[in-house]
Structure formats: structure tokens, C-alpha cells
């Protein structure tokens, strides 16, 4: 066909000031060599495809007749009168194709092309329908994207306002802190000056007291001791009298002894033999006398020692008397000084109490501002946690919170020094999903599992809650609520109904204290969902990595594999992990990139 040799035109260029087709005169011949044909091609905006002159049409030619020959002869004769380049009415009618005459001959050619056209039309319609569907889907996605952009902008503006407010409050607190520090420094300087003044005063008072004591010492030296000297002299006289009495006794004893000796000697001379026994008696009496003499000497020594003691007592009495006189002389001055010091201390106490009341008022104002700011920050944290939880739910991935890692690695990261209560509060929005009938699991190797269970139970506490606890060690599964009996099937073991929160807390803490070097699994269930805590904080790093690997690979070979597979399919899972090496980080990144089946089903 002729259409097979025509090239498809290129896309039209931008509109120019060329002459439109309507301005071409129909009187001009189409095969003329004038500028009309060129103008027509240029007016379409592209070059027309060249049709070869040797093209043979498959449409049958019109049968020539006598009428046509006669009309041609008449037109040829009349064409001499028409200007060159203009066609007469007859020639223009002649050039039109006789459709009615040749319609039956053309029908034989049409069926082959109509089938192709119908196929093309069907393809066109199908492509048009798919295009419409895709365009509608694209429009809906653009509308949702615009909504999310508006939400993001509003949230971003709110966050910016809150950050500016927090920065202003921080600047205000820093300013107040600087004022307090400067005030304290001034108070310290004033206190130091007062201490120096008091020190100077005390030094002056000490010098005055020293001068007074020196004067009193000189007066004490000039004190009259005549009475004491007289008493000492009288004692000395008594001592001399006692010595005289002792000498007299000695003389009496010696005279009597000599007399008796002479008498005994004379008698001895007379009666030597009969008086031998008497001599012994006399010797005994002599010894007794000597003993009496010794007693008298000891009594003398005792009297001498008593005299010395009395003299020492007199000296001590003299010292006490001097002290009492000194105290009596300094009593009035000391009392006045103490009263003055007491009044100064009382005045300082009153000023300190007045300052304390003022500082207490300032503290109350600052404390009220601090509590208001803290409540605002807590509200901001709650809104931030709700927004972050919504974003992570929209992403539909397994959540990973890292301990001691960079902030860009996981959904959220915490420092080692972060309080455990703050970390637990960060995923309480996820825990509250239990109230909506969605099971939640926390796989943890950092915090004690019992504290996570107790602090999280407050978020979804209900009347019909059940607690279960099992442990896994070297492939053996034990029920910690039922005397460490073995467990074979999931969730089919001892249950404890939670009636009293304090009792529940005590049971969990007692179980948590008995677990050592084993994997603990805490399960809290209600009518619609479960909250599971897989505590691997007491096992070594190899078993912790094994749990991460087995979570990504569904293996039902043992109890732990079946439990992890159930958690993978049915729970919104959070991994709270302290990353200790690069392998753990890569495993957690892999888990963080996996879509959670439970979020997809919701």
C-alpha cells in the first residue's frame, strides 16, 4: 500500500508565523512548480514525505465515457480563455475522485486494513485505560504526598518553635545561674571581710586580756603570804617539839637501859649461872624494845610524810585561791564581752534569717518556673515519642534501639549513661499497642527483663491479664513458675493471674534475681494480644548473636526457634541491644531493613 512508504513526521516545533493551510488558494494546481506547494509544506511545520512518481495505485481507474471525452474537449477549448495558473470549475470537478462509482471496487481492499485498525484501536483503548488508571493512581499518590508534606511542615514548625522556646529558657536559666553565682561570690567576699574584721577584733581582745593577765600576775607576785608563813612556822615549831620529845624518849630509854644493864651486870656477876635464862628473857625484852624503837621511828617518818602532804595541800589551796581571785576579778569583763559577742551573733543570725527568707522566695519562683518548664518538656517528649512511633509504624520495619552507638545507625540510640527509666519510656507508645490487640515483643540484652515487664505493664494494665515466665539454657526449657518443670509447647505452661500489681512486681523481681546465665522469656497476655520480653542480658555474646541470626532465619527445629518464628510473624518487635562488635551491628542493620509481617497485615 501507499501508506507503507510514508515516513512518520517528527514532533511539531513551536508555532511560528507561517501561513496556515486555509490561506492556500484551491485554484492553484497541485503539480505546479510555483511556491504554493512549498508554502503549504512549510505551513505544516515539517517537510512532507516525497511520493515517487512511479507509484501505482491499486484502486481501479474510472471507465472513460463519451461524456467525459466531450467534456474534456469542451474544457480544453475553454481553458484557453482562463488565465494561466487558475483552474476552471470543470477541471476542479474533474480532479475529484468518483467515490460512488468506484465504491464497489474499493470494498475488496478495505477488509484487510480494517482488521489491523481494529487491533490497533483495541490496543490503543487498552493502553488508554491503563494510562488512565496509572494517572489516577499517580494523582492519589500526589495528594497523599502533599498531605504528608503538610503534616511534616506543621510538625517541623512546631518542633522549631519548641526548640526556640527551649533555647530561650536555657538562656534565661544560664542568665539566672550567672546572677546566682555572682551573688554567691559577693556574699563570700563580704563573709571573708567580716571574718577578717572579727579576727582583728579578737586579736585586739586577746592582747587586752594578755595585758590584764600580766598585771594580775604581778599583783599575785606582790600578794602577802604572812599568814601562810606563820602557819608554816608553827608547823616547824611542832616538828622541833616532836624531835625534842623523841630525843628525850631516847635519853630516857638509854638511861634506863644503862641502869638495867649495870644492875644486870652486878646481878650477873653474882648470879651468873642462875641468871642465864633471865639473860635470854632480857635479850627478848631488848629485842621488843628495839621493835618499839622501830615503831617510833616509823611513826616519826609517817609524821614527816604527813607534814609534806599537808604542805603540798597548802600549795594547791594557794593556787586555787589565786585562780578564784583571778576569775572573780575577770568575771565582769568576761561577762560583758560574752554578752557583746552574743548580741553580735544574734544580729548576724537575724540578718542571715532575713536573707534566707528572701532566697527562699527566689528559690520558690525559680522552682515553679523549672517545674513548668519540665512539664512542657515532658509534654514535648510525649508528642515526640508519639510522632516517632507513628513514623516507625508507617515505615513498617523491625525497630532497633542501640546502646552506645552512633545516632545514624538505628532508629534510636542511647548513651551508656542514659537512665533505664528514660530508655523504657521511649518505647511505651509501642507497648500501648497491646491495648489495640497487637502483640509486642522486646528483645533485650542491656536492661533486666523484669524491670522492663514491671514498668511496661502500667501502660496496658487490664483486669484479665496473665503472666508466664520460662528460661532456656543449653536447649532445655524450664517453667520458672512451676518448679522448673520442662516445657514442650508454646504458651502451654503455668499461668499466674495478675490481681495485685504489688504482688506481681514482687514475683517478677524474685524470679529475676534467681536467673543466672540463661535466657529468660517473660510473657504477659490479655484477651487480645501478648507482651513478650526476651531477656538475653545474662548470656554470653555468642548466644546473643545466635538469637539475632535465628530471628532472621525461620527455623522450627527447637522450642526457641519456634518462639522466634512466632514473634517474627505475629509481633511488632523492638531490639534493645548494646552493640559490642561489628558483627552485631551488621546483624541489627539487617533486621532493621526487614519489613515486619505484623505491620503489613495491619
List the helices and strands and how they pair.
Elements: H1 36-44, H2 66-78, H3 89-95, H4 99-106, H5 110-221, H6 226-270, H7 276-395, E1 399-403, E2 412-414, H8 420-426, H9 428-431, E3 439-444, H10 449-457, E4 466-473, E5 476-479, E6 485-486, E7 496-497, H11 501-514, E8 519-525, E9 530-535, H12 541-552, H13 559-570, E10 571-578, H14 582-592, H15 597-601
Parallel strand pairs: 1-2, 1-10, 3-9, 3-10
Antiparallel strand pairs: 4-5, 4-7, 4-8, 5-6, 8-9
Strand content: 5-15%
> Which CATH-level-2 architecture of the largest domain?
3-Layer(aba) Sandwich
**Cα gyration radius (Å):** 64 Å
> Low-confidence parts, pLDDT < 50 over ≥5 residues?
1-9, 16-82, 98-109
Number of strands: 10
Helix share bin: 55-70%
Count of discrete alpha- or pi-helical segments spanning 4 or more residues: 15
Biggest sheet details: 10 strands, mixed
What structural category do the secondary elements indicate? alpha/beta
CATH class of the largest domain: Alpha Beta
Quaternary organisation: single chain
Task: Give the averaged pLDDT, no decimals.
Answer: 78
- Terminal Cα separation, in Å? 60 Å
Q: From N to C, what is the helix and strand string?
A: HHHHHHHEEHHEHEEEEHEEHHEHH
CATH superfamily of the largest domain: Kinesin motor domain
Shape summary: elongated
Task: State the domain count.
Answer: 3
